[in-house]
């Protein structure tokens, strides 16, 4: 009980300066729905008969969180922001410095403690059990003019990795290094187009789960009065280093993604906004077990100050 109270005080002390003195803050809450097929997702069936392609589709709800808190002090701006990755909310904390290394330099750390995975996704003929995968990240982002470079390191820890205990080459704890470069072109006052390239190198404890990959994307932002339209398209490939000792093939995956959001500002109040999102993701793998798809829709409402 005392530990819980001390945690609440720590969270309050962390957020209080941002709430009182912050600028460019916003908080939005909503709900999303995902329909898809995915043998790896704990939202899918906990019982599978074979290691073939996903058979059963699922429909699940998940929370949408849009949090941004910024506190400016001279050349430094401290921030807290949220992201939703694969239906699990994550928190990022950092500092932004002006005219240090680049025009704008960010240093950040983050954590995603809520991601759930299967203890053994390959278990057939019995009920699969869930465990947590905790992700910890640190990185920096350099912005100079219309160009941006982000360097990010992430460590993932699977709490109870029964698959890795059964087959050491399939252990899932990993260290990921990611580099992303983007150029944001202001086509006009209303339109901005941003192509990007992301390179990943993931070193897992199990060599069959280690890979290198890339993602090329392009996004377009259009502002028209009270409305903001945002469209993102991407394509990526991952190539694994060693053959899967159970499925007996080296894994290769192609990823396709489309995401659209529409935001209306000054909804019922000058500082209120409402946002709708819709997207579709598909992964085409040479191993049928890893084929997956997801249709996502959601809506959230928030307040900025």
Structural class: mainly beta
What sequence of helices (H) and strands (E) makes up the elements? HEEEEEEEHEEEEEEEE
- Indicate how many domains the architecture comprises: 1
- Over all CA atoms, what is the radius of gyration? 21 Å
How would you explain this protein's 3D organization?
With 305 residues, the chain is mainly β. It has one domain: Porin, CATH 2.40.160.60. It has 2 helices and 15 strands. The protein has a 14-stranded antiparallel beta barrel. Strand 9 and strand 10 form a beta hairpin.
Descriptors:
14-stranded antiparallel β-barrel, 2 helices, mainly beta, 305 residues, single chain, Porin
Give a nutshell description of this structure.
By secondary structure, this protein is mostly beta strands. It is about 10% helix and about 65% strand.
